[in-house]
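Study this pair:
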Amino acid sequence: MTTVTQYPTRPWECWDKMKEIRRKLFQLSWEVRDQGGVAIATQQLPFPLVAGLGPFGRRLYGPYFAKAMRQPEIVTSYHEVADTAGFPAQVMCSSMHHYLGEMLLGLTTKHPKTGEECPVDFVLETQFCHSASKTAQLAGEFLGVPHFVLDVPQEGKEIAIEYTAAQMGEAIDWMVKVTGKEYHDEWLIEATQNWWETRTIWARVCYANQAVPAPLDYHLFHDLVIPCSLGGHEQEVVEYAENVLAEVEDRVREGISVQGLETCRLIHEGEPMWYAKSFVTDLLHRFGAVLVGGFTSFSGGLWNIDEEGHLTPAPRFGDLGVTLRSREDALNFLARAYTDHATIYRCQGSKVNEYLNRARDWKGDGVVIHQDIGCRSQLAGVLEAETALKKEGIPVVTYEASNGDPRDFTPEQVEE
């Protein structure tokens, strides 16, 4: 007879702080221009670069994303607007397609509470995929503001670092030109150190989930990381990340489980269905299974990646023995972080070692793969990786949907 262990659970102490920071950063994105700062439309913002300008707010191209994803009929209406305007779905990222709908409706600059017009100053994007870069270009055109796309190579070693640092320098000169603001290198340096700290701490949070029972699950990862994703360059967020890590480590020591039962540990590869974010997690919870991580769960961290593709958290800033004294130092440091340590810029190409190592290192009993028809980058290499997992005796189950378009989601099909 199989013995099922019931592990203790408890509420998260850091939950309220997460919501407080999230609320504050969202409000700042709409009110920062009233404080003399700049508002930026973006998806993946290089936060430390912008910090040298002073106060700023980061606004998604589709700032109603989270609200819309809780109401599928609303996000569907945004997709239909983009379709009607001549941007057909499934030829671009489904999240970016939804953003286009919001932009075409004028929502990117419409205050969510007052309805007042709140312009953005410019568009600045980091190219982590081709759809995001194209959306940045279209955003500049639709919003009537300058745009700049920072290209990050996915390979190239030292040449890639040199190239990325040079582009970052060009981005700074461009921001100064389009805003007329003075740039402060000391603010860039401080923000760079904070950003590195936040991201390396988050990698440790992810790494701690190798413990049995797992203190976190896939759904919780995406909630707790929000302050790190929106304001990781700020000291308050560094302190928040440290508190999350301390709480996670306490839970590991005390054997606190994310859900009480852990009959099976599964890795989830691919983005969630943001409009049904908890669907797969809740489905598996019914059987006591836990999604202990995956690509998007861990992409908020900075990692050391060995030759075989295994991930270990990159060192904390104070352990590096590095002193940033100038803009050049900071940009070279940031460029190396982006090209060598950030997994989000490695989402294309072969995924064989990546999937195998996550399954093994996080003690996965199997892998769930989202065959995301709304993201071509994450589809690349998936079938090859699936074959490799099965060859190694690791069970795999796949489902087809998209990350941002509810029209691609059939609950009965996914549940089967």
